[in-house]
């Protein structure tokens, strides 16, 4: 009986991933059906050298903040990481998260790589989960006030989610000095600010004449929508939430859909340098050395 259960686990995981992709694809198809393909044209039209440069800068700062946050949480769990190593790992993981279902595959690889480096699997896993949850709690908390435009139930739900996720992140850093704990939350706010600024930039470039307050509330909620583990790298839930938020803020669902597509493109650009670090995952050091020698 146990031997039959073991091979069933990969099948269940594959089925879950397939359902995530299917749900995201269905949602995106419904949104394109509702708002048309013009939204994609508007998103592509806001790409320029200036917005691409801003995306790369935002990705650099946000990844550095995440890397240091990971180091601090990991240190509390007895896992030691150098900054250069954590930075490269986070950048590669960020790109993988944007390309594969669920948005956490890259983080799972981070855990496995730490295990292969000799760290305890439970502690390595707790460190990665803890630092990700710290960031997620900020996404949810930031959306509480803008969610009032959707209704008190939405604001209450985000607030409750932020508290629950934040408590789990706090427990993951148990034993860390207060200075490290404060730094973890400060770095989480910095990382959020980078991507929130990028989302707002996409909004301003897509609908330059819209009220900034409405764009701010819409994009904050759109970023919070990325915490839903469905679709591919956030695509799907983010667009749905942003369209709903834009309608609630008087911008129209189609406008929100276009803004979210634009942000998705910029987010992908911001993670592209992670492809260099990703090569270290796909081509281990010995393979690279042999190629240099050949």
Structure notes:
The structure is a single chain. This protein has 294 residues and is an all-alpha fold. It has one domain. The chain has 13 helices and no strands. Helix 6 (121-142) packs antiparallel against helix 7. The longest helix is centred in the N-terminal third of the chain and has 34 residues, at 2-35. The radius of gyration is 20 Å and the shape is globular.
Task: Briefly summarize what is shown.
One of its GO terms (cellular component) is plasma membrane. With 294 residues, the protein is mostly helical. It is built from 13 helices and no strands.
Mean pLDDT: 87
Taking pLDDT < 50 over at least 5 consecutive residues as the criterion, the unreliable ranges are 1-6, 286-294
- Domain count, please report it: 1
What does the main sheet amount to? Answer: none
Total beta strands: 0
Query: Count of helices?
Result: 13
In percent, how much strand structure appears in the residues?
under 5%
Report the radius of gyration as a whole number of Å: 20 Å
The ordered H/E elements are HHHHHHHHHHHHH
Shape: globular
Distance between the termini: 49 Å
InterPro entries: L-PG_synthase/AglD (IPR022791)
Organism: Kocuria flava
Pfam families: LPG_synthase_TM
Protein name: Dolichol-P-glucose synthetase-like protein
